[in-house]
Amino acid sequence: MSKSPSHSPAADGEAVLSVDTLNARFATPEGEVSAVNDVSFVIRAGQTLGVVGESGSGKSQVFMSVMGLLASNGWATGSVQFRGQEILNLPPARLNRVRGSRMSMIFQDPMTSLNPFLTIATQMNEVLVQHKGMSEHAAMKRSIEMLDLVRIPEAARRIKMYPHEFSGGMRQRVMIAMALLCQPELLIADEPTTALDVTVQAQILDLMADLKKDLHTAIVLITHDLGVIAGLADQVMVMYGGGIVEQGPVRDIFYDPQHPYTEGLLDSMPRLDSAGRGDLTSIPGQPPNLQHLPPGCPFEPRCRYRFDPCRASRPALSALDGGPVGEGARAKACFLEVLPGREAA
């Protein structure tokens, strides 16, 4: 498949998205909600960033801010640069030149993201006509190619069908095909496998891995499932209470977690080698109310290692080696130097 963008694609390793001190707030009748707090990161071409955390951790709102899709009562501050161009809070007309073509988002529920009254062909072709100026004939040909790429059987026939005529897994493949129509440099996937059974989940993740390899697309994978992250991500960003609590290479996060919350998430995962070892461990309590965040560490009420400093002030994200918190740095937001029991890790 040949690329025909008006922009030059990013080379492997080139920064595609740079986010600096991003904050997102929402005005509600009960008061202001701090959904995202001082989040910074970089994503490079050909890289997959896994963003993990419980519901309400702020992970989706980070990328709704990036895409300019916050609800009408929300606003964002900070800096979001796409290939060196500031895009945060751009007017929709200018932002539309980037989103949908150079960066795309796959949403959690394909049935609510697809228009039930329009055929798949109508919805896919519109993207190419609007963003690429293609004729209907050329758009139909490209759309069928993309459905073939995501392994929709009999794509030329099925493209004329309506969303309800597809299974959940097939609808998710259609959403991925639509997101990739303009061959974007950045693909944001928000819980892309949540509503799917385990077999279809594996197929979708294999598909995304192939797309990353073949098209060198930078991918953001937003999920609460660390198992999904393990199979696809290069770097991991763990979020809690609207901020980053730990970040680093995927292998380091899994084999040597440095934040109590990350440790709790890993301990709550079922393991094939733990048969007969008792019940799964859960994290006690509930995520914090983002409208009334505690003065100290937001995880302190649920943390088994908490001590006095945790209640007084919020720990800053700090590199484990004492250096600056740069991209790819192993970092955590915790007053503990080392988690108990991991001194020798």
Secondary structure layout:
Elements: E1 15-28, E2 31-44, E3 48-52, H1 59-66, E4 74-82, E5 85-86, H2 92-95, E6 103-106, H3 110-113, H4 120-132, H5 136-149, H6 155-158, H7 168-180, E7 186-190, H8 198-215, E8 218-223, H9 226-232, E9 235-240, E10 243-249, H10 250-255, H11 260-267, H12 308-312, E11 318-319, E12 331-332
Parallel strand pairs: 3-8, 3-9, 6-7, 7-8
Antiparallel strand pairs: 1-2, 1-4, 4-5, 9-10, 10-12, 11-12
Structure, explained:
The protein is an alpha/beta fold. 30% of the residues lie in helices and 22% in strands. It has helices at 59-66, 92-95, 110-113, 120-132, 136-149, 155-158, 168-180, 198-215, 226-232, 250-255, 260-267, 308-312; strands spanning 15-28, 31-44, 48-52, 74-82, 85-86, 103-106, 186-190, 218-223, 235-240, 243-249, 318-319, 331-332. The strands form two sheets. It has an eight-stranded mixed sheet, with helices on both faces. It has a four-stranded antiparallel sheet with strand order 2-1-4-5. A hairpin with a 2-residue loop joins strand 9 and strand 10 (243-249). It starts with 14 loop residues before the first strand and ends in a 13-residue tail after the last strand.
